Amino acid sequence: MIPAVGSPESRSDPGGSDSQPPPLDIEPPGCAVLVVGCGNLLRGDDGVGPVLVRHLWERGVPTGARLVDGGTAGMDVAFQMRGAERVVIIDASATGAAPGTMYRVPGEELEDLPPLQGLHTHSFRWDHAIAFARWALGEACPTDITVFLIEAAGVELGADLSEPVQAAMEQVIDLVERDYLAALRPQTGTDLTVEFTADGYVRLEAALAAGRFPSDAVAAVVRDDDLWLIPLRGPRSGGLLLKQRNPAGDRATLVRDVLADRIPAGVRVRHSGTMNTKRCGFPWVGASGPGL
């Protein structure tokens, strides 16, 4: 006999014992570094925070980091901070300074400004979020919070980022990478090894690829018989894609055309003491042939 809907039998599992659905965990996971970009993407320089987060995403997100587009929802920003060890917030400012002026402000200098009295959701901003998080999250609120502010030139609807704000954004990206994300990226050993295959591929070990080319997109250029692999922000920037070639995460890309079919097949080792460490890339130098 089929039990009636709502009867005790209908609320039991097929085995005859009552079951309860598992509790849902809707809290954001803790992380070593949380980067939040705040602002309105539709209003010119006010969108610098979310645009910056997108650039960081294209570079690759290391394990232990979390990137969040905070938009204009300040209360969401407060709850996103739960359990993070370090927090970075980026937003536009309007202080009257020259456009593109960049400020780096410790979070404790902002946690009591402005006051929370009389707030409602439509007026809740990131600067309220720090004070609110201290109150709402208690011990789960991070103590290491840094705010980067970039002075806006204009916030017209539909406008792009202005040139001074774009330049300042690049500076902030470099600072966030250096001070917060670099330590989370895989570190390579003293000797950096690549392999050139006879069919024209260059293969990189997983740690080298993740540490130097986190977005998996590169430009390959021959300069003075050196092959330069230059990291790009992401596949949308064009260039070559470092494809995963095995479960370990090693990467490979086809450079035969760049080397004009003169392939220096074999394994090449580059010592870090002689490696160019600029962000734009590094050469692999050898005794003969293009690129080596």
What's the helix and strand layout?
Layout: E1 33-38, H1 48-59, E2 65-71, H2 74-80, E3 86-93, E4 102-106, H3 126-137, E5 144-151, H4 163-181, E6 191-196, E7 201-204, H5 206-212, E8 217-223, E9 226-231, E10 240-241, E11 243-244, E12 251-254, E13 266-271, E14 282-284
Helix pairs in contact: 1-4, 2-3
Question: Could you walk me through the main structural features you see in this protein, from its secondary elements to its overall organization?
Answer:
This protein is of the alpha+beta class. The longest helix has 19 residues.
What are the salient characteristics of this protein?
5-stranded mixed sheet; 292 residues; disordered C terminus; 14 strands; Peptidase_A31; Rossmann fold; 5-stranded antiparallel sheet; 2 domains
What would the principal axes of the Cα set say about the shape?
globular
CATH architecture of the largest domain: 3-Layer(aba) Sandwich
Major beta-sheet overview: 5 strands, mixed
The CATH superfamily name of the largest domain is HybD-like
The helix/strand series, from N terminus to C terminus, equals EHEHEEHEHEEHEEEEEEE
The poorly predicted ranges are 5-15, 118-124, 273-292
Helix content: 10-25%
Discrete helix count:
5
- Residue share in β-strands: 25-35%
Distance between the termini: 80 Å
Level-1 CATH class name of the largest domain:
Alpha Beta
Region (Disordered): 1-28
Protein name: Hydrogenase maturation protease
Family: Belongs to the peptidase A31 family.
GO molecular function: peptidase activity
